[in-house]
Amino acid sequence: MFATIIPAKNEEKSILATLTTILRLPISHIILVLNGCTDRTFELIRSIPDTRIHILYFSDPLGIDIPRAIGALYARHLGVKGVLFVDGDMSGDIYENLVKLLASIESGIDVALTNCYPYIPHRQKLANLVLKFRAKLNRELDLFKSLGLATPTHGPHALSERALQSLPLEAVAIPPLTLYWAKKSNLTIKVVASIPHQALHSPRKHRRHARLIAETIIGDCLMGLSLVQNEPSSRSLGKHNLLGYHPERRFDLLEYWEQSLKSQGMFYEQHIIIQESSLTISNSSESR
């Protein structure tokens, strides 16, 4: 029994294509984490008559990567044997790659990754800088020979039930930390699929977004390096504090969601919608 977790924020242009791929997979649950959507993403998902679909609806934006952790908590609550993470804008033909990720988890891999940068001799300066820090973290973890530049930050990836149960929430909400905690917990980590970034069909974003994403990923890697070096958590590089989108991560709502799942209280009830349910959607800011 596996689940796919799909974070989505204003993905009306791609969500149906993404789901067309996901619906073909041998999975028992499709968990969509909608956060801050102001377009037709919700209506498009609700038009699909498949009882495997579970919608976690947050009217407030959760911030980057927090939806993955929200979905992972819910999947753990459902008792699944593993989870596959696919972003809502990954509308490319990646079915075979996703099958490989699921098969690897079933065969005993705990953290299954995708290499999204195969065979690219020339990259933009910003991408090179991000990859430099990914490589540094993987080397510090003694994982570079096996993983290269692969990371849970980028591309579809999967976690086993063991990983889902043992990784701290912060490790899912800040993807580079997944590698640190997985290594520390003696989990098996492997690259099992290769998808060039452009094959994901994720839309191009504006320059400011690209810069903030780069700052976010580098800052996340710096946090991972702090852990490896047994130093206080830091996102600083020289005089620069690389925050990017990090301050927008709603760890408060993640913590509240974890507490609510344990009690299945009102906050839980107001934010989950499954096909056969008529549960109410409410504004998360009103539920706090």
Which blocks of ≥5 consecutive residues have pLDDT under 50?
A: 277-288
The secondary structure category is alpha/beta
Bin the helical content.
40-55%
Oligomer type: single chain
The backbone outline, from C-alpha atoms, is globular
Helical segment count: 13
Strand content: 15-25%
What average pLDDT do the residues reach? Answer: 91
List SSEs in N-to-C order.
EHEHEHEHEHHEHHHEHEEHHEH
Main sheet specs: 8 strands, mixed
Radius of gyration: 18 Å
Extended strand count: 10
N-C termini distance: 32 Å
Biggest β-sheet: strands ordered side by side in the sheet = 7-5-6-4-1-2-3-10
Describe this structure in words.
This protein has 288 residues and is of the alpha/beta class. The chain is 43% helix and 16% strand. It is built from 13 helices and 10 strands. The chain has an 8-stranded mixed β-sheet, with helices on both faces. The protein has a two-stranded antiparallel sheet with strand order 8-9. Helix 3 runs parallel beside helix 11, helix 5 runs parallel beside helix 10 and helix 9 runs parallel beside helix 10. The two termini are 32 Å apart. The model is unreliable at 277-288 (pLDDT under 50).
Per-chain topology:
Elements: E1 2-8, H1 15-22, E2 29-35, H2 41-46, E3 53-58, H3 66-78, E4 82-85, H4 95-106, E5 111-115, H5 125-140, H6 144-147, E6 157-160, H7 161-166, H8 169-173, H9 176-184, E7 189-194, H10 207-228, E8 236-237, E9 240-241, H11 251-263, H12 266-271, E10 272-274, H13 284-287
Parallel strand pairs: 1-2, 1-4, 2-3, 5-7
Antiparallel strand pairs: 3-10, 4-6, 5-6, 8-9
Helix pairs in contact: 3-11, 5-10, 9-10
